[in-house]
Amino acid sequence: MTDAQETAADSTLRTTGGAPPDDGGSSATEAPIPLLEPQDGVPPVIADEASLAGVIAAFAAGTGPVAVDAERASGYRYGQRAYLVQLRRAGAGTALIDPVACPDLSGLGDALAGAEWVLHAATQDLPCLREIGMVPEVVFDTELAGRLAGFPRVGLGAMVEGVLGYVLEKGHSAVDWSTRPLPEPWLRYAALDVELLVDLRDALEKELDRQGKLEWARQEFDAIASAPPAEPRKDPWRRTSGMHKVRRRRQMAVVKELWETRDRIARRRDVSPGKVLSDAAIVEAALAVPPNVHALAALNGFGHRMGRRQLEQWQAAVDRARALSESGLPQPGQPVTGPPPPRAWADKDPAAAARLSAARAAVTALAERLNMPQENLIAPDTVRRVCWEPPVSPDAGSVGAALAAYGARPWQIEQVAPVLVEALAR
């Protein structure tokens, strides 16, 4: 720890009544220490431009990495927007910002330009942060660092407890963060989420360095920071839960019409689509293709609590699907741009199936030796693509080039290419 971090830890220990873990960790015999209060108390929520200007100035003058977190209202509101942003930096303390009241945080993002942002599961928070003008140049992802280092549990609470010896209270992780005003216990929870994030980052950096994986982690973090925004999904209605039960094209059309109707209503009302109509109800209606409101009302999910007007709007969607011509019905599946499903390889190309079996076994063994999840060593889809269409003469150079074309980082190519060459040669 730095001197500032040791001071922060000592202050926290005075609050919790515990003793500091040695070297940022806790021994197996020491009981974890409940972290009950933020070091500086729960800060006020920043909800006006004047207060935001003060936060921007404070964080611009701060030093070192900045811990960043965001709270969404998944399951309550439409979309994945941020409803609270938490930050902590040495010299600036902790800030809680209401992005509903202050929807443009680009000034804060500019003030933190060049600073390393420490996030836990960065890919979950970066899209909603980008929407309000906060885009990091440098990232340290403590969840991904934990995966690369071989930790069996990489949730924030588990990591803080296992690495730093503190217990975070996680009872408010799934609450409705769009609530206003936010209750004080929720704000305390939110502040504690960034309280020790930089300390966790420092401890994980040391562990990655000890294992010889620090450069690997840096390449992964660079890939996260430089990744473009995700493209909208094509035909998102196809991801309706239970879709595997829907076999006929007419039934697929019912799913599509109901899904799109639900989405328009949810967007307009700013509520989670599942609160408008469940996926299970959509699939139930698709399988039955009810001819009228009376038949629809008899299905699960369209019971007596649903009013006549609501039933009529859902039946109208079903009727639109029933009225489509055969040529207007959805196709059974989305166009396949990559290899077929692995279960079909043995019939389509037995040699490719043998290559994939050998490659999977080799990659699994390598991941075990490196003590990390296989999917973090190399994307399974990348392995499938290389095995389906391998280089004409598979050697380290050609296999490495193929991996790079599919987005593998240099460290992944260095580790994986040799075992894939051997597997492809078999």
> Counting H and I runs of at least 4 residues, what is the number of helices?
20
- Series of H and E elements: HEEHEEEHEHEHHEHHHHHHHHHHHHHH
List low-pLDDT spans.
1-28
Name of the CATH architecture of the largest domain: 2-Layer Sandwich
Number of domains: 3
Strand runs, count: 8
N-to-C CA distance: 49 Å
Radius of gyration: 26 Å
* Strands side by side in the biggest sheet: 2-5-4-3-6-7
Pfam family, one: HRDC
Organism: Streptomyces poonensis
GO biological process, one term: nucleobase-containing compound metabolic process
Domain HRDC: 248-328
Provide tags for this entry:
single chain; 426 residues; alpha/beta; DNA polymerase, domain 1; 20 helices; 8 strands; 9% strand; disordered N terminus
What's a concise summary of this model?
Residues 1-40 are annotated as: Disordered. The chain has 426 residues and is an alpha/beta fold. It has helices at 3-16, 49-61, 106-111, 122-131, 142-149, 156-164, 184-195, 197-210, 214-226, 249-269, 273-276, 279-288, 293-297, 308-323, 345-348, 350-370, 374-377, 380-388, 396-405, 410-425; strands at 33-34, 45-46, 63-72, 82-90, 93-97, 116-119, 138-141, 166-167.
